[in-house]
Fold these 2 entries.
Entry 1:
Amino acid sequence: MQLISETLEQAVEQLARLPGMGRKSAQRIAMFLLKQNDEQVFRLSRAISDLKKNIRYCSVCYNITDRDPCPICQSEKRKTGVVCVVEEPKDVYVVERTREFNGRYHVLGGVISPLQNIGPNELRINELIHRIRDGEQIREIILALNPDAEGEATGFYINKLVQPMGVNVTRIAHGIPMGTDLEFIDDATLTRAFAGRQNF
Amino acid sequence: MINTSLSLTNFRNHHQTDVTWGEHVNIITGPNGAGKTNLIDALHYLCMGRSFTSSSDMYVVRQETSSFLVKGAFRGSIRSSFEVACSYSRGDGKRLWVNDSPLERHADLIGLVPVVLVSPDDRKLTGEGPAERRSFLDALISQTSPSYLDDLIRYRKIIRQRNRLLADIHMHPDQLDLMLEPWDRQLTETGSRIIARRGTLVRKFQSYLEQAHQELAGSGLVPSISYRTFCDIGEEPEPDAGRILQDYRTTLRDSAGRERERRQTLTGPHRDELVFYLNDMELRKFGSQGQHRIFALALKMAQLYFYNDELEDLPVFLLDDVFGDLDPQRTATVMQMLLQHEGQSFITAAHPDKISGFSASGRNRISSFGVSGGRVEQTP
Ligand SMILES: Nc1ncnc2c1ncn2[C@@H]1O[C@H](COP(=O)(O)OP(=O)(O)O)[C@@H](O)[C@H]1O
Ligand SMILES: [Mg+2]
Ligand SMILES: [Zn+2]
């Protein structure tokens, strides 16, 4: 095929690298952008470049943030002493949406997975230990990791390091999401929910 | 469970095939290479999410096309009617749907439409290595228990993660114990549940196997299965998972040195063995060809009988090319069994004369189909 425009081709190529995007959709988006006015396209391109320029990791909890420390770590309304450990920044948003948790977070940046060459040192586990040791007076750690083999292994590992330091370690129960019809729950979740059932 | 209709698009040599099946025995005949096995394989896709003839979905896509689609309508006792679909294309990979909603995990399909498959490959069950027998047992249990399948998938993952740590031992020689511990806990917990389930099943299965074998071979020799794992699981009908866990922990600890040498996980259900016996003769070592064939068929018939008792819905029974191998008397036995079976079954045969005698006697229970060149037609 004859290349119509090298500039267009470059844009398509970059867009096609995004997750879940094929060449066809990339072409469609590029054509869509061409039809937008300058101001709209400029806002999008600025938002994208700001993403990398302005966003950094909170030096306390390692969530992504514009300011360091992040608003949660700075907030006086949040309880100190209770830390919820999650895998990724997106998990913070999931827990925040529930409005159930009023403590602080610690974002590990992944889970232990030897197959992907990720060991404890590749995660923010040492940083968590430092937070416990250096004056944050942490009494309880809530593990909110995924219930897969890697999440469990990471939980075991953290528990083993942290418990001797006099910190209470709990984990969230993995059960049926609130407001979900039983019919739409996959069997594995339902099975675990039954295994972890509690007295009413 | 009844498969009322099946639709194949670009599946092997089927360009577009739509069939409406009978509720009981469906006999599929046609010359070699006509596309009979492919029909059975398509049904297998809807039950197990994969082919039984090919290890790669890619080969199943009809040549010179880019994707296949199989759809089937089912009728069951709990879900009165639903549709299962499976597609594969090189770009999107394999996708599964139940009633138009995509399944996130392949595992969620297993057990929805229980299936028992008899195929020429069954000879591997009694003749080849332990992996064949383990996967028979795993498929057998998984269709009755999603939690078992869940454990299996998790266990395999743990083994791979753990083996990687052992393989990379030089990178963290003095930290290995610390690194292994989180995996060891999961390995032993998941693994001992798997062992207890396997032990329970094998014991429960014994009477079904005896019944099936007796129907096929008479009451001379009694078949049995001995389940061997690294520890003694006792004699109770349901082995004690707690005690297996204790043994597992101890054995794992004791084999730490050897594991570091061999750099892989040496203890656990991934190394289990099933040994088949006729009376006290070990089939694999001393059985005749005929004894092997009957034993393998008896295992599958026993699976059918077991499911009949155990499951809410009767399984779909698939028999590919069985009669080529059987003498007239056994052919008659199997046909009688199929005609008595309350559930639905599908049989392929290259030579209709072998079973034509039954078409008359079981007229109201038998539907016949002819296949040639990837086209299917119901025959009177
Ligand atoms: N991917 C494919 N595309 C087209 N034809 C195929 C493909 N795979 C197998 N075939 C054809 O399917 C036929 C075999 O079908 P099969 O169902 O095994 O026959 P049988 O009726 O003997 O059981 C052969 O003619 C083979 O060439
Ligand atoms: Mg065939
Ligand atoms: Zn923070």
Entry 2:
Amino acid sequence: MTTRLVGAPLTRREDARVLRGETRYVDDIVIPGAAQAAFVRSPHASAAIQSIAVPEPSEADGLLAVITGRELAGLRSFPVMEPRGAHVAAGEAHPVLPVDEVRYAGQPVAAVIARTRALAEDAAELVEVEYEARPAVLSPRASDLTLMRWSQRTGDVDAAFAAAAHVVTGRYALPRLVAAPMEARGAIARYDADADGLTVWCSAQDIHRSRAQLSHILGRDEGTIHLIVPDVGGAFGSKGVVAPEVAAIAAAAIRLGVPVRWTEDRLENLVGAYQGRGIEGDVALALAADGRMLALRARLWADLGGYLLTTTPIPPHTAATLITGVYDIPAADVEVTGARTHKVPTGPYRGAGRPDAAYMIERLVDRAARELDLDRIELRRRNLIRRFPHRTPTGLEYDSGDYERCLDLALELAGPDQPSRPLGADVARGTGFAMYVERAGGGFESARIQLRPGGRFLIDSSSSPHGQGHDITFAQIAAERLQTAPGAIELRFGDSASAPGGVGTFGSRSVAQAGSAVARAADAMVGEGARLAAHLLGLEAGAVRLTPAGFLGDGAALSWAEIADSAAAPDGHPPGGAPGPLQASARFESANVFSSGVHAAEVDIDPETGQLSVRRLVAVDDAGTLINPLLAHGQVIGGVVQALGECLVEEAVYDDDGQMRSGSFLDYSLLTAAEIPPIITGEVETPTPLNPLGAKGAGEGGAVGALPAVANAVTDALGGRHVEPPYTADKLWRALHGADDRPAVPEERR
Amino acid sequence: MVINGRTYDDEVEDRTLLSDFIRHQAGLTGTHVGCEHGVCGACTVQLDGEPVRSCLMLAVQADGRSLRTVEGLAGPDGELSVLQRAFTEHHALQCGFCTAGFLMTADALLRRRETGSISEAEIREELAGNLCRCTGYEGIVAAVRTAAQSPRH
């Protein structure tokens, strides 16, 4: 009998520690003698630095040092990733601290290191920086400085547009958003001069990328950096690149010979942490008379901010490559320009290009249905990709999926379509559907497993969690293969001293990549156990098999505990076998896998006030085989609610001078428990053939599908008028009453 | 001041926040600081039984008062409370950073309403002073409902 653990909704094991308050977030870690850093930040969006006058270090004031860009001239700027086929202006990389100019309000200009945080903040006020303000460029279309460009042309797009029965166009824009994890960023750096070793505890998504970035910036070998990721209070993409402040305190710890801590406060996080979205585009679809999609054109502009951080070029590239969505469109001409603006850089935020693409294509398809007078569901059905693998005209290869099944389930869960009431009734009601495909997985991760006394296992995973629930999920994967209980398996994460090689936790890839590595390592351990069991039972290696009772062969049984005992004995191994505990490791690598889904929304708009009320949401997601449905559901709901926040309230607002006007939680609102409508979920499980689990990714789908679903419902309620999110009462009232002096363009007519 | 039944006697600067005293002087780091401007509720503790934001108080204001933090929620034998157990059962925490604040708010609600059921709408209103960025609140609301339906003590 095989124990089925994959698919079981087991609860998490790390919860008890958190519920008791025994947490170890970076600011909970006590390092005796650690100094604290505060940062002087630019008040200007764009300015030349003319001079910096700093207070002298003073024992009486507890001030150890003030470090500016000049002191850090030996450091390199951030490494920058180059998406395949993209041109990236690597010379525009973010410096740790600037020397002669600042490019966004909030940019760190000087690090003040003092005995306590309060003293550091006191001393920061004594630093005098003279600036010469310059005009700020805030719109990506107005910028003449390109930081990143990618384009692809497949098929005869011009001919398709020339011959098309219908051409439908749309102009769309998504504002900048703040990831706003409840724990802002932070780190502690400690340098051991004798060993030339730097230890960094960092609130980060992973050890690997953080360490590689610090290695590049500090110009020191990765082997001299011990990176520890302790408990992390959320990230949503925003902790995949170390903060410039973290590199600064690492440099300070090396110079001063004392440990240095930086704990970011919320106001710093809102203005200084890299933001998400901030993309706009013109998209056009060529359709045949019967609604078949013939070709797509897209010109996208991304607002990348003042500099490139390591992953800044990734989301616009992802948006551009996913722009054809779930549709079988043979030809496409797509170009994305990432422009320099005088704002904090952008980077991945939950979805990281996926919601951007889904928003544009799904709004455009709804518009096409209106213009062609076709049912919006029927138009989608006629164009769905149905054969896999599918090569998109943007160069992606979708591995698997069943888009129509997701659509049918979403229709069933949404119930019968309620016709929109005409404007002028007591309420404007709309419904909307949206489909999405999500690039997930990809790249490599690894795992190492060790058999310990009593038949217990220790697994070192290359991946580390920040709330996702790696621990029980990976324990389920391993326990099923090892025919043991999850309780026999301990996971260890987040320490470069023990973790095997990998990349990190982002892009909905942990189960597919790191989980598959755990599965492969467990399989290898079963092989090792069988080899030893056969030796002990005097049988051929193939003559034993693993059962929940242990290895069975020729009427005898050996449990994992007995195997562990034998492995520890000097003569316990077959001739030629290495003595000591059984170990196995695995590295798993695959191409991207593609999750998908269909979301639906039903909304009301009060014509008197313009107030939007989302009545309910439906989320059908296909993340492949679900290992733990309880945790996968948590990912979906969390993502949907973030998307709902994006629809209702969230926007990083800048004034004409480039000052952020939503720099507190009073101005940048997050939704509360009282504002969440009923969310009905459904799962479709189409396993991927690209990994041993069949798992794709569930981390972002919720945040991808709900945005265009609500957008389509709002447009439906407005009778076809298009408004950009967030759907504030002001914008909707203007759209309803034709009082638009702003972008609420009446672009859709029956 | 007394925290979780233990007396803490220490000197503080007049500007020291209660949240910083709890975390860095009393060493009770289970209480987290999420915004330091009174919006997110992560730093919620109970002051003489009432939930308060410890980032909006100075430590000196709590002189001689009685505080309860997340470390004081489990029973004397270390057994998790009904509310704490419900949080795990309903997957009410992901990153866990906001959890202590939600527990202290919800625990005060359950204590204030010793008997009788609490509607979902009421729970949602009561919890609206605490922000969670991970869960979408579904599991948290379900956990508090479950705890409200269980015998309280």
